[in-house]
Design goal:
Elements: E1 3-13, H1 15-18, H2 25-31, E2 44-48, E3 56-60, H3 70-76, E4 78-86, E5 102-104, E6 107-115, H4 118-121, H5 129-135, H6 141-147, H7 151-176, E7 183-190, E8 195-201, E9 210-214, E10 219-223, E11 235-236, E12 241-246, E13 249-254, H8 267-272
Length: 275
Amino acid sequence: MCRWAAYRGEPLYLEELVSSPAHSLIEQSHCATRAKTATNGDGFGIAWYGDHPEPGRYHDILPAWSDCNLKSIARQIRSPLFLAHVRAATGGGTRRDNCHPFVHGRWSFMHNGQIGDFRASAPADGGDARQRSLHGPHWLDRQRAFVSARPAIWSRAGSLGAIAETLAFVERLAEHLERKVLVRFTAALSDGHNLYAVRYASDWKAPTLYAAPMGPSGGYCLVSEPLNDDDNAWVEIPDGTAVIVGENGVDVRLFGTAGAAPDTSRMGRVASGKM
């Protein structure tokens, strides 16, 4: 299962998440501790925002631990908002266009998890031109689910609303086709201003998600698993929760496709920054 990390706040060097910590994302690429698979060696990627509205991106099919340029780039690039990902392939082949984060215009997106039996219920025509331009000829089930949220949904419901409507559509489609509904989904996305994250599963067994303050001026880091052994610094985000990190701090809210309420006992700690 893939691992990822994201940050928004005062500019930091990418190495603060990617390579420097004791349990950095590069370390997690070959020794993840809170995932079903310890090795995430099927590619990696980073997307970061700077002086332009659209993000820069660097990704490749090499394992993160073996790419000779990744540490150098992470040490030199400083950004107020960035996403980083190491991949454990579950389908779609080991190709550069299947390596997260994905970008389209000003948006960047990455995830881990699964949508059970999605290919059997997905359209067979390969999707529209927007989908093909975003991901190339090989598809992953969660990528297709993500881009199936058409612009009309985004403009009406916003980013989190679009994700909720898309996941709800997948669940309804599975039920209609009399297939098992299984969505396990943890994702991060950004428009270059805010950082959004979602932890959701139809069986309440979503991949892990943690949050911690980082940086000198109220920045926040969201990760699949903690970057160090300081358990007091990290709060696990409950299942059925969305997190928004913006210029005014952190907003934590319920997230779901059917109105089910998660365990919110730790959400106040996340929102207040009292880690």
